[in-house]
Amino acid sequence: MDAWGKRRDMVVHEPDPYNAEPPQDALTDQVLTDIDTFYTRNHGAVPRLDPTTWRLRVDGLVDRQMELSLDDLHDRFDRRTVVATLQCAGNRRAGLLAVRDIPGEHPWGPGATSTAEWTGVALADVLDTGGVAAEARHVAFAAPDMAHDAEPPQAYGSSIEIDKAMGAEVLLAWQMNGAPLPTVHGAPVRVVVPGYIGARSVKWVQRVTAQAEPSANYFQATAYRLQPADADPHTAAPGSGFALGPVALNCAILRPDDGSVVVAGPTQVSGYAFAGGGRGVARVDVSGDGGVTWAQADLDEQASPWAWRLWRQTIALQPGRAGIVARAWDTAAAVQPESPEHVWNPKGYVNNSWSRVVLTVTAAPGQQD
After folding, report:
1. For the chain, what is the domain count?
2. Are residues 228 and 355 in the same domain?
3. Domain that holds residue 354
4. Among 56, 122, 231, 293, which is 20 to 30 Å from 25 by CA?
């Protein structure tokens, strides 16, 4: 384990602030991601908060402002558990970097996605206790971690729409996979917003504010917005593009890895598929010839409406080079776009193009090339 309790083969994109994803093979075969394997995205140094003195302030457009301790959350509200996948908006950015450079952004692979069982209390129950005013349209979250990549440098913050905030699935969580929430994942309490990009699930949350407008924090007003391909993110005005919220339909091939050498014959291909916003994954197609012909993969059961689905398909491969492609369909009949060229953007967000790997297939013993 490393200093953050993570496995030593994590792909570390930046040591400080700590940003890392697991090797993609580590995500196969189990619905819940082990805590030591779960990806980590940070914009500032990880704060270490004392749970005995931590307080959550609830304010803004509420009838009663509140200040709640961790014991208050435990004792005054019903406990809830939700299985939910979190996905970084920069997941699979490496595929967009292969199209055109994106200076200053981490080359995330498909491992910036993980699934856990989260336990805490419903944000809606806390807000109901405070009494939300009719004019509230958004709920903003504030945390103490200072982000020096913000302009100007500031503590991290974000917001979600009031309708989402009042959903029973949105949690103020203090447990992850049945264990106390680790510091690097937001202890003592974090927000978990299932179906939305990970940037909205604010860690180390200290303030919840009901308000009429979205958060003015840099990470809501300027970052985590999808800009058109011809935009300059360094000169774009705050509020340009549109804010990323629900996760776009996506899937990734996790095994075998791109560039692998495999033996001709039946080869199992496996991965994950995920659709945010409460949509389900209806189908995953896999092709062994670069997308000319397709076969439907076997899908695991979905652990919750907010979790990914793992899939697998066995393909017969002949000696030579093989282009394996996977694409997902959601329950609204949307399908992933074919090419990363079609979704390239200047911040490298939301690469949900078809997942592709190229394999070298060698002849089996006794088989001629």
Report:
1. 2
2. no
3. 250-362
4. 293
User: Burial of 189 by CB count in 10 Å (0-12 exposed, 13-18 middle, 19+ buried)?
Assistant: buried
pLDDT tens-digit readout, 277-333: 989 999 999 999 999 999 999 999 999 999 999 999 999 999 999 999 999 999 999
- Does residue 306 contact residue 250 with C-beta atoms inside 8 Å? no
Q: In terms of Cα–Cα distance, which of 267, 271, 274, 286 is closest to 324?
A: 286
The CATH code of the domain that includes 72 is: 3.90.420.10
Q: Which residues contact 74 (CB under 8 A, 6 or more apart)?
A: none
Our measurement of the distance from residue 336's CA atom to the centroid of its chain's CA atoms, rounded to an integer in Å, reads: 17
**Dihedral in degrees, nearest 10, Cα atoms 97, 103, 109, 114:** -140
Do 299 and 153 share a domain, yes or no? no
Burial class of residue 124, CB neighbours in 10 A (0-12, 13-18, 19+): buried
Tokens 């510091």 locate to 183
- The rounded Cα 187 to chain-centroid distance in angstroms is 18
State the number of CA atoms in the 13 A half-sphere of 87 facing the CB.
Answer: 34
pLDDT in tens, 158-167: 999 999 999 9
pLDDT digits (tens, 9 = 90+) for 259-289: 999 999 999 999 999 999 989 999 999 999 9
H or E element that contains 271: strand 265-274
Instruction: Read off the pLDDT band of 131 (50, 70, 90).
Output: very high
pLDDT at 364: 80
Is 139 in contact with 208 (CB distance < 8 Å)?
A: yes
The label of the residue with tokens 């993609």 reads 24
Residue 188: C-alpha distances to residues 198, 285, 338 (Å) = 18, 41, 41
Alpha-carbon dihedral 194, 195, 199, 200, rounded to 10 degrees: -60
Q: In the predicted model, what is the mean pLDDT of the chain?
A: 96
Alpha carbon distance 346, 324 (integer Å): 27
Place of tokens 């913050």: 157
Residue 150 sits in the same domain as residue 268: no
pTM exceeds 0.85 for this model = yes
